[in-house]
Amino acid sequence: MTVLLGGQRVHARAAAISDRGALGPGRRLARVLRTRATAEPAVTTTIGAAPAPPTTVSGAVKQARVALRQWREAAALEAKSEAAQRSGGEASTSAAGAGPRRLIVDLPLPAQRTGFLGRGAPDPDLLMLLDEADFPGGEVQRLRVLRPLVEAWLDGYDSEFLGFLEDGADGVGLWSAGPDTSVIANVTSATVPSLLKLLDGGYGARATQPGHTVIAVNPTWTGAGSVGQPWQFELRRRAAEVLDPAGWETLYSCRMLRSSRGANGLLMRAWPHRWALYPAATPDARHLGDCVLATPERPPTKLLIERLAEAKPAMEKKAKELGLDEPRWF
């Protein structure tokens, strides 16, 4: 069985990207703040309820801004604690000092469709499932659509677009967000070498310094085995080190899902809250059901498929009650 994750087809046996062991500061703080993680539908922490699932792209960007603010506040608290320990002669217990921190932000993209079989174009701000047909211009078009979202997300953080990495046709953009944060967007398996060059100081030493934060926005890399050519052993060795899921923490993620059997849903995570799965009546966010799965780490694809399949009959019934026809994009 397969499931479409934000337009990408993934086999049910694919390994889930885990937050376990991520290097982001505030992870220990987040674990203290979280309630005991279970697979129960309640998505709350002791610092307040998790945000409701967004129904629009702009709503998701606002939630990502909140997650970034909370993470930076936690990082500042941890840095202050570390400074106090050092002044008291205590050994540091933080992994943050070992090198730059690495985060992932996965923002939904607005629909690019102009119409279908006489139907009008969908609301471009509606959060909906996309596929490759939405971006015939490839990675360059994806970055063109993603760029205003990234800049809205970074508004107020002294951000600056620094340009394209390597070749503009690769569709990889780089921003600075103040002196302590670098943002790289739209990295694919083919352009992982640009990410490695950034982390190794090829675009300046700042990104290699302890306390610096590197945020990958909408990365679609799959693993070291897909990087470079089979004979580029050193490149793949370095890629395996950098792409290890344990080295990245998901700050924010929001994606529509659709299984091969037509079950729709929305999977989201807003730091420091848990991953949450919501069934959907259609392959968009016009109507979402109650949370059917909440876990501290990204759920495996097989479990996502099972929970969406269980909720599908109720969602189909709800779609008929509300008159929500399938948009027939799929």
Structure explained in plain terms:
The chain has 330 residues and is of the alpha+beta class. It has 6 helices and 14 strands. The strands form 2 sheets. Strands 1, 2, 5, 6, 7, 8, 9, 10, 11, 12, 13 and 14 form a 12-stranded mixed β-sheet that branches. The radius of gyration is 20 Å and the shape is globular.
Notable characteristics:
330 residues; alpha+beta; twelve-stranded mixed sheet; two-stranded antiparallel sheet; 6 helices; 29% helix; 22% strand; globular; disordered N terminus
Which helices and strands appear, and what pairs or packs with what?
Blueprint: E1 2-5, E2 8-11, H1 27-33, E3 44-45, E4 48-49, H2 57-87, E5 101-106, H3 138-153, E6 159-164, E7 173-177, E8 181-185, H4 192-199, E9 213-217, H5 233-243, E10 249-259, E11 264-270, E12 275-282, E13 284-288, E14 293-295, H6 301-322
Parallel strand pairs: 5-9, 5-10, 8-9
Antiparallel strand pairs: 1-2, 1-10, 3-4, 6-7, 7-8, 10-11, 11-12, 12-13, 12-14
Helix pairs in contact: 2-3
Pfam family, one: DUF1995
Domain DUF1995: 54-300
Organism: Chlamydomonas incerta
The percent range for strand residues is 15-25%
Number of E-state strands: 14
- How much helicity do the residues have? 25-40%
Mean pLDDT, nearest integer?
81
Give the termini separation. 17 Å
Q: Report the C-alpha radius of gyration, rounded.
A: 20 Å
Q: Flag low-confidence runs.
A: 1-46
Given the structure, what is the number of helices?
6
Question: Largest sheet at a glance?
Answer: 12 strands, mixed
**Structural domain tally:** 1
Structural class: alpha+beta
Can you tell me the overall shape? globular
The helix-strand sequence is EEHEEHEHEEEHEHEEEEEH
Organism: Chlamydomonas incerta
Pfam families: DUF1995 (PF09353)
Domain DUF1995: 54-300
Protein name: DUF1995 domain-containing protein
